[in-house]
């Protein structure tokens, strides 16, 4: 159990400055004066937290929450969580895609042309999909046509055709992951309510299935289970009780994320994901933009820099091109949590603490282990954590993926290169 520590009545925090990019950082705040326990919600789940991570998160709650003299309910501190593999184990987009394939719920593309589903779909992929999935009606018979199910699963899951040819090309790798976007685009023709029905059915199946379960899609086997992390559910509960404004920002389609987020009592208004343009009450294959990206341009989703844009626009109220830029520290989220390179930008923007679940993602782990401002918390995944990565993370050479997909060194805000980092927080390492 967490033991409340009586904090000193006064403490001093030194201000840190990150040079060169506007990523101005505020030092992790000093402990707040002691307050009655009833006013300071405590984290109750201890198992699974690494080192002093739980204690530092508790200090964040005590410093910025209602029990702090500085708390202003008119300007609540902001906490932002990624969803898949951050709040839960496994991927809710995958779960819904697999359910739709098993139940024949993917619509036949407009005019039978698969290129209408994604502007980034390559000619070989469009040809392979057309061959495997001939248009026979409003929906594709993926329950019985295993070749069609296999081809869609390969393009979505691997980014290649079933024969290994690249399925997507020509996209900005810091704003778009076309495989993630493709799920949202394949929801074309359904209403938001129906998509939520699909997600709810997939959720029920995946939560009921035993840990490690697989399901058959086409001729292959794929992940068939999911679990909420008790530690994250507890953290979200405590943050909300402490008066934080808690949001989920996911690279899954927004209606799907909304269904799952209810399980941690985060409502639809506080859930952000990939959004489709709608027409006459039904989703289209076009996607809503952000910042300077117009609706239907399909070139930015809630992915890396796109997550930053979505937070700035939909939470902070920043409009236009400015939403794509780092905002002043006083406006930004105090806390952020993520597990993948897709979360790097909004994690870096957090001014208090940044919680990372280690899934061996190169750029994210380079920045977290570098930990120049001492605000990064690294934790093994709470269920089936990965073991130690034997080779160092290639931070100084190929850890960063540029907008055109080329690999480059991971650089700090001042332009200096981060040295290769050894993996030290992983499954089996000492935890609290």
UniProtKB/TrEMBL annotation:
Pathway where it operates: Amino-acid biosynthesis; L-serine biosynthesis; L-serine from 3-phospho-D-glycerate: step 3/3
SUPFAM superfamilies: HAD-like (SSF56784)
GO process terms (BP): L-serine biosynthetic process
Catalysed reactions listed for this entry: O-phospho-D-serine + H2O = D-serine + phosphate; O-phospho-L-serine + H2O = L-serine + phosphate
UniProt keyword Amino-acid biosynthesis, yes or no: yes
Alphabetical list of Pfam families matching this protein: HAD
Record-linked InterPro entries: HAD-like_SerB, HAD-like_sf, HAD_sf
Domain of life assignment: Bacteria
Signal peptide: 1-24
Cofactor field: Mg(2+)
GO molecular function, one term: magnesium ion binding
Biased composition (Polar residues): 419-432
UniProt keyword annotations, A-Z: Amino-acid biosynthesis, Hydrolase, Magnesium, Metal-binding, Serine biosynthesis, Signal
Record EC number: 3.1.3.3
UniProt region (Disordered), positions on chain: 398-432
GO cellular component, as recorded: cytoplasm
Main enzyme class: hydrolase
Family as reported in the entry's similarity comment: Belongs to the HAD-like hydrolase superfamily. SerB family.
Identification of the protein by name: phosphoserine phosphatase
Organism field: Streptomyces spectabilis
Phylogenetic lineage: Bacteria, Bacillati, Actinomycetota, Actinomycetes, Kitasatosporales
